[in-house]
Write a structure and sequence with these properties.
eight-stranded mixed sheet; 16 helices; Rossmann fold; alpha/beta; 2 domains
Length: 386
């Protein structure tokens, strides 16, 4: 089968961890030997690469084309004007990539479009599929179906794309329920969860790694983009109630300065370390050396960081956002908290350490979440569609 993978949520050399779960799922699908793919991963157009312009500048530094893990990836630009961008994005996105896709079709006659993220990507893919006469499969991943449908026009466009789609996937049962709530028939939606790369994320020489990373006390990890919905501020607040613990925050984003100021205001500035964005190999080292991962998100689809941490033997404390209860479903995985507050986070951490699981059992739990089942499900769906 020849597919065209289409998503703005895909890594590039200037932002290598952006949407890496889309790339990882595709890598495992291609490893089956039953699928070929080319990737069209558009990025918003922006004229300046200066770091002062934040994420816009990062996108500006994306190459026009590259090969990642043996996969050819194109990064065409599309306009995304302020204020009206959200409503017009599917049409701007589709219009910008039509010449690119027409060029691809001259040498690569793909069978279907595999789109990731329902809005705007899935809607744009449905527009392209209609124009080209190609079936479209759309995967919902999080805020595309648990936040964006709150807006009337995007919600109507998501429904239209769902009617046009030949197949739909969600990465968690909770996201399937979100689509059903806006009127998408549940029998047309398949749940194919994200997996975890068990070869990459594995236990390390813990004591040696703790010495290398300077961990001398019990250490919590908070991993993710530094934005409000990830809840890093709640973990910092919890640390003030956990005097025997340190915190390492991994990730970058616009809230970096505010989070640093909060740590100082809470009197824990000397116990919080900001590492910034790291490679997957480096992330494995931190997971393996840490004592617990805390994810205090307000919204999630399928939080990959939870399984990554568990695969390294480190249990987790997570809010019940999105698909997290589907991930943290046994004592050896860790625990859940139902309230998003520093007090609740601190209490969740205390409960975990009061009955701390065997790290080997945590790893064995994660081993049930490899990519093989998801790959088989994708192949079945694509074969049925074609």
């Amino acid at each position: 089968m020849k597919i065209l993978t289409f998503s703005t949520l895909y890594p590039h050399s200037a932002r290598p961890s952006h949407g890496i779960f889309v790339e990882t799922r595709l890598r495992h699908l291609l490893a089956s030997g039953k699928v070929e793919s080319k990737v069209v991963a558009p990025v918003p157009w922006f004229p300046w690469r200066d770091a002062r312009f934040g994420e816009y500048a990062i996108h500006a530094r994306a190459p026009r084309e590259e090969t990642r893990n043996g996969i050819d990836v194109l990064h065409p630009r599309y306009p995304l004007p302020p204020k009206v961008g959200m409503t017009l994005a599917p049409f701007l996105l589709a219009g910008a990539v039509i010449p690119i896709i027409d060029r691809i079709l001259r040498t690569y006659a793909f069978d279907l479009i595999d789109a990731h993220y329902f809005y705007p990507d899935g809607v744009a893919a449905a527009l392209l599929g209609k124009r080209l006469g190609k079936p479209v499969v759309i995967t919902a991943r999080g805020t595309d179906v648990n936040l964006i449908p709150r807006y009337r026009l995007p919600r109507a466009m998501i429904r239209w794309a769902a009617r046009r789609a030949a197949g739909m996937i969600t990465v968690a049962r909770a996201l399937k329920d979100d689509l059903i709530r806006i009127g998408v028939p549940g029998e047309r939606i398949e749940v194919l969860r994200n997996g975890v790369d068990l070869q990459l994320f594995r236990p390390v020489d813990r004591e040696a790694m703790r010495r290398k990373l300077g961990m001398s006390r019990m250490t919590l990890l908070s991993v993710g983009h530094l934005i409000p919905r990830k809840g890093h501020e709640l973990v910092i607040g919890a640390l003030a109630r956990l005097p025997d613990m340190d915190l390492i925050i991994i990730g970058d984003g616009p809230e970096r300065a505010a989070l640093g100021a909060l740590a100082r205001d809470c009197g824990v500035g000397d116990r919080v370390r900001f590492i910034g964005a790291v490679t997957q190999d480096e992330l494995r080292s931190y997971y393996g050396a840490g004592d617990a991962l805390v994810l205090a998100s307000s919204r999630e689809g399928w939080a990959n960081v939870l399984l990554e941490s568990m695969a390294c033997g480190t249990p987790v404390v997570a809010t019940t956002a999105g698909g997290s209860p589907e991930v943290v479903a046994a004592p050896e995985a860790g625990g859940l908290i139902t309230e998003r507050s520093p007090e609740a986070v601190a209490e969740g951490v205390r409960r975990l350490f009061a009955a701390y699981p065997d790290r080997g059992a945590t790893r064995r739990y994660a081993e049930k979440f490899g990519w093989e089942e998801t790959t088989r499900g994708q192949l079945r769906l694509f074969e049925r569609v074609l």
